[in-house]
Specification:
Radius of gyration: 22 Å
Order of helices and strands: HHHHHHHHHHHH
Shape: globular
Distance between the termini: 44 Å
Number of strands: 0
Helix content: over 70%
Number of helices: 12
Structural class: mainly alpha
Largest sheet: none
Length: 314
Amino acid sequence: MKTWVAVGAVLLSASTAFAQQQDDPVERSVQRLKDQLKLTDDQVAKVRDIVKKERDDVKAVLTDEQKTTYDQAPGRGNRPGGNNNPGNGNGNAFGNIRGGWLPPTADLKTQLSLTDDQVTKINEIRDAVRQEMRTFFQNRGRGNGNNQNPAEQFNAFQEKSKEETSKKIKDLLTDEQKPKFDEAVKAFAASQPAPGQGGGFGGNRGGTIDERVTRVMDALKIESSKEADAVKGLVKKVMEATDKLDAYQRETRTKIDEISKDSALSDAAVGEKITEILKGHKDLEKDLAGVRKELAEVVTNRQELELIRRGILR
């Protein structure tokens, strides 16, 4: 019951602040922090002052042109160079999740020659995706009758969200802009860091497993179809094992929060749960190490180097 009350509070807070966030970069950042950290009203007021001062300090050293670009990317956490907020002009589609499939709005604006109205509407779509993602994680695995493991649940959600978001954005574009959008998305996916490079949810892996495997195989340039099939199967196994480990780590964070808040648990019971969590993590790491070893044994040194560069082998 408490969970649903908290979810309701977050949704209500997001809806009442939505209009403000569209125009005010400070309010965007403050609202994001409020939602993520559950700030009190007193904390919100203090954070707002800090965020505003930091933005003012940054803008003090920028040219007029740079200030405009900075203001078009208001959700950077007020640190130049970041791109983690989906509701801003420069963030990935999934908030703090790196490796999103959708290029920053600022890039789309340049590549597609978007109008100001199109930019505003695309940012509204990003904000909606962000809220959907937050709700997904708040409700994951709770009475939905879904027997998929967490990684499969997320992949299914991500694919559906990608399809729906892409359609909504294309509905805003002209016939000339639509193919440019497809090219921008494709180029952005290809430019994403390899698995494990840079951290973040999903290990900076954009797209489905099959899409990611295809990109890796293209990079390896294996001429023999028989050899390629063998390597492809093992690459896919490594990605699946990595996804399972990522999902377990996310679930573990939730479990730890729940355990820490359960004052009724004895110290011995807490110890048992810690042992259980660590064992599960160790088992998944062992599985991942096993398939990585298999893959390393069937590739050439040059191919292994490329796989290491992409974070698939370590």
